Amino acid sequence: MTFGSPAYLLALLLVPAAVAMYVLADRRRRAGAARFASPVLMPSVAPTGPGFRRHLPLVLYGVALAAVAVALARPETTVAVPEERAAVVLATDISGSMEAQDVNPSRMSAVRQAALDFIGRAPDELRIGGVAFNHAVRSIEPPRAEREDLRSLIEGLTPSGGTATGDGLAAAVGLLARQGAQDRQRPPAAVILLSDGTSTHGRDPVPVARQAARLRIPIYTVALGTDAGTIEVRGPDGTTTTRSVPPDRETMRRVATISGARTFNVGEGDELATVYERLGSQVATREEQREITAAFVGGAAAFLLLGGAMSLRWFGRLP
Prior knowledge:
Elements: E1 2-3, H1 14-36, H2 42-45, H3 56-72, E2 75-82, E3 87-93, H4 107-121, E4 127-133, E5 137-144, H5 148-155, H6 165-181, E6 189-195, H7 205-214, E7 219-224, E8 230-234, E9 240-244, H8 249-259, E10 263-266, H9 269-284, E11 285-291, H10 293-315
Parallel strand pairs: 3-4, 3-6, 6-7, 7-10
Antiparallel strand pairs: 1-2, 2-11, 4-5, 8-9
Helix pairs in contact: 1-3, 3-10, 4-9, 6-7, 7-8
């Protein structure tokens, strides 16, 4: 929390000063009562007392005074507000290694479900696009608020072939760069790159990450799968061999770091859904300073009213 007029916080010193004055007055009252009657006669003179209730309204008044002092300082807090012009592109690897079942029920199924959940939960204002690639770019959907075509793209994802991470990444960055060129000020945009293996075809993804950094388009990377992931590969002679398909975490880390983003290592479908949701919220909102003086003024009024009501109810007067 920050303050627009922090000098007014000095008014908080009035609270301990008021407490000290009240304690001093209370001691004088007790001393006067002791002079009026001896301690032995006090139970007969004043058989019952309000106890702690006598102090409670004044405690509430003190809290109200502190709230007013903070309100005078014009408190501000950082809140996340919707960014209506934001766009994100899901760049998804659909190479043959996505058939691996180390992620339940399979890597491809987990990606498909997480992406559909992300689309369904994302703010309506967020523009979402998609790029699907294996050894070449297979499908492209420009980012927009209407999402039926993107859903169809994701539902039709089928794993096969090799991995051209650089080509898929370049296509995703290109979509956002073209959209940003239409505006004088580039709207917030990001790529969420999901891949589960080493790039085997096409461009090197690292130079593409440098280009994205120059365009101020962060690339959040998700390395899907575990080191134990395997797929069955059928050879030309019809024989089947088992191939290990661990994720290329180092390349994914470099791409994210160079572009100014973060990387995630995901071994479960639920983890993937959480990452997608978190990144969607991050891209679709921006931080903004908001003044919350009214909240403190309202709180002060509530404490004053509550303290007054207690005093009237218990003692029939205001202190």
